[in-house]
Design a protein that fits this description.
It contains eight helices and four strands. Helix 1 crosses helix 8 and helix 6 crosses helix 7. The protein is mainly alpha-helical and about 180 residues long. The model has no long low-confidence stretch (mean pLDDT about 90).
């Protein structure tokens, strides 16, 4: 994170994929303009960015955005994931989890795919579905897991993508097996 002054506001801005959350990444993927990127990465309203001085934006900020044009590099699947400062073990086999978790993730995947033809937007939901019980020490509950999605949106993109892709891939493979029966 880099501390900047844009107009009259002091802001912290992500300056590499290391600083970006999965929610910010999803929103960046949906946009295609510099004002939106800056708004997402600084939490400033687009109007504030549009009214900032040319020097503030072009000299201080735009040079820091080069990373947005690259795909975030993700490491292999981590053994642990950090959610809201809590480290949790990543399950190696989701078939050992509950039927409800499997069902609701597959339902969320189908809904997202119909809407956008892309499953990246399901990653926070997948994290919430599979990590809710461990995070709270509770049984799986879809209503509570749905609320937990907001917390999972804050997971760093470099952790969220490999773990989320693992959950999505496992679910797709399970769906394929079901279709072949």
């Amino acid at each position: 994170m880099i501390h900047l002054k844009i107009g009259s506001k002091n802001v912290d801005m992500a300056s590499s994929w290391d600083d970006v959350t999965i929610d910010q990444f999803i929103r960046i993927k949906e946009k295609n303009n510099i004002i939106s990127y800056l708004s997402i990465l600084t939490d400033l309203e687009e109007q504030e960015i549009m009214n900032a001085s040319v020097d503030d934006i072009e000299k201080k900020v735009i040079p820091l955005l080069d990373f947005v044009n690259d795909v975030p590099e993700t490491e292999k699947m981590p053994d642990m994931i950090t959610i809201s400062d809590k480290k949790l073990s990543v399950p190696k086999d989701i078939s050992l989890k509950t039927f409800g978790q499997k069902h609701f993730l597959q339902e969320a995947m189908a809904t997202e795919y119909k809407k956008s033809k892309d499953l990246i937007g399901v990653i926070p939901t997948a994290l919430a579905i599979y990590f809710y019980p461990d995070f709270y020490g509770d049984r799986f509950d879809i209503a509570k897991a749905t609320e937990f999605t907001e917390i999972c949106k804050k997971v760093k993109v470099r952790e969220a993508i490999p773990v989320g892709n693992f959950f999505l891939t496992q679910s797709v493979n399970s769906m394929k097996e079901k279709i072949n029966i």
